[in-house]
């Protein structure tokens, strides 16, 4: 007979950390859309699940609407205060957020494409990041905006850039009994353009064959001040193409430069064959999609 699986439902962060520290084989769980798949397939066999969903301190999406008071503090109509995303905020909540759609369009697009609306209603950005799949849509979107993670554990809290969090497929820098408390996304500043493209074989519920995102922040004269190119399924983890970013930064944005960025991103992508697609096809599509997402971001117009 299968061993019984204990289910714990703490209401504070410290209680959750304490459960994870003291209950042998305990694993945190949010929407469980990855956890239950892992348990059913026999990949994971936790002795206890510590649900994070009843902890109010993890549920905030701030701000969640573009109120006048908040926008009054913003320069040139852009979000100069960024956004704070609690550890159990769902993709559905981001999809419904006008603030996210207007000021962080690539994260909004990435979250809106995860699974189906039923999946998005329960699946969290925190779970997507901590599951650390190379294809994780919202992680690839968040990499564009230099997001950082607030991790809470037995030794207190620490902040880590999202780009330093991933170690390999399913592996992160989370320490034992640590919980992702909050994702902090700084304001990208005025003249920022961004887009995320989830490349799939069909429109329905499907993990990406490839995820490609771009975020460009331009100076007043049109020079690229900050370039971020992020890729899913092009490395053992969600990743940035720093080589392509270097091609773009400090230069005037032209169609030729954008094409070169696509070629450089493709040349450095660590693609591989999977049952969803061949490595050569992924590389070719990186070359095509990097210029496409930059075009769709509006930065070239
Ligand atoms: C039908 C279906 C379609 C899907 N489609 C997509 C898709 O299109 N794109 C995509 O990227 N993913 C997709 N997924 C995968 C999954 O939905 C996402 O990765 C989701 O974001 C996971 O979130 P969750 O809250 O369900 O995580 P959970 O399953 O609860 O947890 C995932 C992992 O993160 C850990 N964890 C969760 N929250 C925290 C926290 N706050 N602190 C520390 N550790 C934590 C858990 O211990 C576990 O290891 C799909 C899944 C299904 C079942």
What are the defining features of this structure?
alpha+beta, Enolase-like, domain 1, 301 residues, four-stranded antiparallel beta sheet, single chain, 3 domains, Uridine Diphospho-n-acetylenolpyruvylglucosamine Reductase, domain 2, five-stranded antiparallel beta sheet, 12 helices, 23% strand
Give an account of the 3D structure.
- This protein has about 300 residues and is an alpha+beta fold.
- It folds into three domains: about 5-55, Uridine Diphospho-n-acetylenolpyruvylglucosamine Reductase, domain 2; about 55-185, Uridine Diphospho-n-acetylenolpyruvylglucosamine Reductase, domain 3; about 190-295, Enolase-like, domain 1, CATH 3.30.390.
- About 35% of the residues lie in helices and about 25% in strands.
- It contains twelve helices and 14 strands.
- The strands form four sheets. It has a five-stranded antiparallel beta sheet. The chain has a four-stranded antiparallel beta sheet with strand order 11-12-13-14, with helices on both faces. It has a three-stranded parallel beta sheet with strand order 1-3-2, covered by helices on one side.
- A hairpin with a 2-residue loop joins strand 6 (about 150-155) and strand 7 (about 155-160).
- Helix 6 (about 105-110) runs antiparallel to helix 9 (about 135-145) and helix 11 packs antiparallel against helix 12 (about 280-295).
- It starts with 5 loop residues before the first strand and ends with a helix.
- Flavin-adenine dinucleotide binds near residues 28, 87, 128 and 136.
């Amino acid at each position: 007979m299968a061993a019984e699986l204990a289910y714990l439902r703490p209401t504070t962060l410290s209680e959750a950390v304490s459960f994870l520290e003291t209950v042998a084989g305990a694993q945190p769980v949010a929407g469980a859309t990855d956890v239950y798949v892992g348990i059913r397939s026999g990949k994971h066999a936790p002795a206890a699940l510590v649900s994070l969903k009843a902890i109010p301190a993890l549920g905030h999406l701030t701000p969640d609407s573009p109120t006048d008071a908040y926008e009054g503090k913003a320069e040139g109509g852009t979000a100069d205060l960024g956004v704070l995303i609690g550890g159990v905020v769902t993709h559905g909540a981001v999809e419904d957020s006008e603030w996210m759609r207007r000021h962080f369009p690539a994260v909004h697009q990435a979250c809106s494409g995860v699974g189906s609306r039923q999946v998005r209603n329960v699946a969290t950005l925190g779970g997507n990041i901590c599951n650390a799949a190379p294809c994780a849509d919202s992680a690839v979107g968040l990499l564009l905006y230099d997001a950082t993670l607030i991790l809470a554990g037995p030794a207190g809290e620490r902040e880590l850039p999202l780009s330093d969090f991933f170690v390999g497929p399913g592996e992160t820098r989370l320490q034992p009994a640590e919980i992702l408390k909050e994702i902090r996304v700084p304001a990208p500043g005025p003249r920022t353009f961004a887009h995320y493209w989830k490349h799939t074989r069909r429109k329905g519920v499907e993990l990406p064959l490839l995820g490609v995102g771009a975020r460009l922040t331009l100076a007043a004269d049109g020079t690229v001040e900050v370039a971020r190119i992020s890729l899913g399924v092009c490395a053992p983890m969600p990743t940035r193409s720093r080589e392509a970013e270097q091609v773009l930064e400090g230069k005037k944005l032209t169609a030729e430069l954008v094409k070169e960025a696509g070629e450089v991103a493709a040349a450095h992508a660590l693609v591989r064959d999977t049952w969803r697609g061949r490595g050569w096809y992924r590389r070719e599509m990186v070359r095509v999609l990097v210029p496409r997402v930059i075009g769709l971001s509006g930065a070239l117009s």
